[in-house]
Every structure is written in structure tokens, then in C-alpha cells.
What does this fold into?
Amino acid sequence: MDVVRQLVEARPDFFANRAAHLGRAIPVRDFIWQSSGLSNAYMVVTPAGRVIINTGMGFEAPTHKRLFDAICPGPTPYIIVTQGHVDHVGGVALFREPGTRLIAQRNLPHCQRDDQRIKQVREAQAWIWFSEALAASRRPQPSAAPPLQDVPVADVSFDDTLDFELGGVRFELLAVPGGETIDSCAVWLPQHRILFSGNMFGPLFPHFPNFNTVRGDRYRFAEPYLESLRRVRALGPELLVTGHFAPVEGAALIRACLDRLDQAVDHVHRRTLEGMNAGRDIRSLMREIDLPPELYVGQGYGKVSWAVRTIWEQYMGWFKAEATSELYPTPPRAIHGELVALAGAAAVLERGRAKLEAGDPEAAMLFAEAALAHDAHDARALALALAANRALLERSGGGNFWEAGWLRTEIRKLEAALGTAAAGRVQA
It folds into this structure.
């Protein structure tokens, strides 16, 4: 019995019913409560007050606070953020009280500076997947209210570890920079053997890590990920409380998942390096390297093929040594339109359709993109691109959040473009 596969396949039931968890406090233990959102907020209740672990997006924080206040209105001596992403820190200002101390790993300001430096381009790209959340975060609010989306400054920063006790509950904070950010930290309650892992394993557990997210972020690295994983695995947690969705219960199950993730990431890392040293090109390695059945983990957030590409570029950079044109700013697509004009759009599209019918939607998509570079309004090219995107989505099974989100967005755009082209023909 593969308990890891069972867990991966069972958890989508929770995703399907996620709406039922919004707007109510969920007991994790009799002293730990969860409020669901884009990412979860948690409250640990002690006789001396409460500790809030992550606060959600700013627009979600009033709901989190209302739910938590109904159970334990405070005081709030501590807030802990497990990373600096906006869906973890946005509500800090709302939860702050006189005397509250915000605790974060010392790299929090570095991560927040990244968010500010590329805010416009990152939000524009992230809109594909998070349009509702981004729209909600931009709604106006009364001027007297706390900031809708806080960019907090920690009162207490730590480098590697930080311990404190509140109301008889011991909290141990551990830096785990192999997570989604270099300021990732885990919160360990040793008396109860409970680990708040935040997003050090990504939002989905146990799934292959997302070493490069297509929404835009810095690369994440395999070796720090493995070091962080091994650090928390050595604790032997009996309850794993992640940044998103339901906790994972049972020391044996958690250990099996962490062992599998360790082995899977190590396998992909080593195989990629071996292929590089053997002279294999990056695209071939993306096609060839996969996980054997005994190393199965989910790929709903990260994908093995994307990890291969990221690992290759982390070691070798963007230059693939395949063509002189790589060195210069003119991309191959700049001449696609001219090549299509020379070959004839009809011939190019016929070849693209043949590729699609032969079961190669990736090649069909390339022909469609070339034809659209020649004429962005060509209904035949739009139709081929639409069919290729649909085939890619069907092939994927829609299981990867990023891939499915991108393909569905492209499908909607192409459907709209085809509708416009059809209306133009009717009017003509």
C-alpha cells in the first residue's frame, strides 16, 4: 500500500469542498484553530494569551480576526509569519495590539523588497491565476482602518533558531530557507509534536516542489530544500500543519511523505546533473527525466520537467550553447512571420494540423504561434492554437495548478479572438 499516493489522491476531495471551510474556525486541536483563506491563518491559545501564525491577505484578515476573537479575543503577545509572501503577512496590522511582537526570520525585509521592486510585473503576471484575490486586495477601504495589505516590519528577527514560551506552551522557530522563500521558517511545538511548516513544502503536500513558479519569483534550489526537509523530519512531527488546506496527521504517514519527497527531489537533482555532464541538452532532459513509480509524489504545483529546466539553469545560466542567436536580443519568433510568408500560411497551418492529428500538440502549438506571428487575426491560425491548447490541457489532466491555469486562460482568449474574427467576417 502506497500511503503517499493515497494521501495525494485523497486531498483533492478537500479542495473540492474548500468553500465549506471558509468563514468558520476549524479546530486543529483543542488549543489550535484554523481560519481558511488564500492561505490559512492559525491561532494557538494559551493561558497567557494567543499566538497568531500567519494572517492571510489583508482583505481576508477581518474574517480571520472575527473568527479567532470569538474563541479567544486576546491578548496577542506574538504574531509569527512563516514567510514574507503577501498571503501570509497581509493582515499583521489588523492583529497587532499594544505590546504585540511580530516574529520573523531575518530575511523578511529582503523578500518584501523583491515584492516592491517588481510589484507591477509580478501582479500583472499573477493576475492569470489570482485575479479574484488581487482585485479584492485593491478595493478601497475606510481611511481609519489598518492598511488593507500590510508590509510589516518584524519586532523580533532571528537567524537560525528562536525559542520562547507563552502560558506553558513552548514554541521553537527554525529557519528553513529551502522553502518558497529565503525567509521561510517552521514553528515547532515540542510538547505536542506539532509542526507548522508554512509553505516550506509548497502549498500542496506531498507534491514535488515548485523550484520556479511561472507566476514569477526567484529560483528555489534543490539542496537547501533537502537540507530544510531533513531538519524538520528529524523532529519526528506527529501533526503537520501546512500553509494551505488540511493538516496531515500521524508520525508514520508524515515520515513516509518526507522520505518520499527527499528521495524524489534527490533523484531528479542527480539525474539532471548526470545528464548535463553527459552532454544532454536541456529540452531532452526535460522530456527524459521522470520519477519511477516507487518515488511517486504529486505534481499539482511543481512539475519534474520544470524542475529539470530550473536545475539546469541554476548551474549553467541562461546560455544553452546551442545557437549564436542566444547571445543577442532578437528572438527566433521575430522572424516567424516572415518565414510563414515565404512558406505560405496555408502550408504552415496544414503542417500544424497534421502534428495535432498525430498526437503532438506541442509541435502544433509552435506552428500556430508562427502563423499568428504572420497574422494575429487569422481565424485558421487562431483555431489551430485553440485546438492545441485544448489538447495540451486534456493531456495534462488539469492536475497542475499553474499549467492548467495558463492553458485555460489562453483558451478563453482564443475563443474570444475567434468570436471577434467571426463577427468581422459576418459584418464584411
About this structure: Residues 329-427 form one domain. The chain has a mean pLDDT of 93. The radius of gyration is 24 Å.
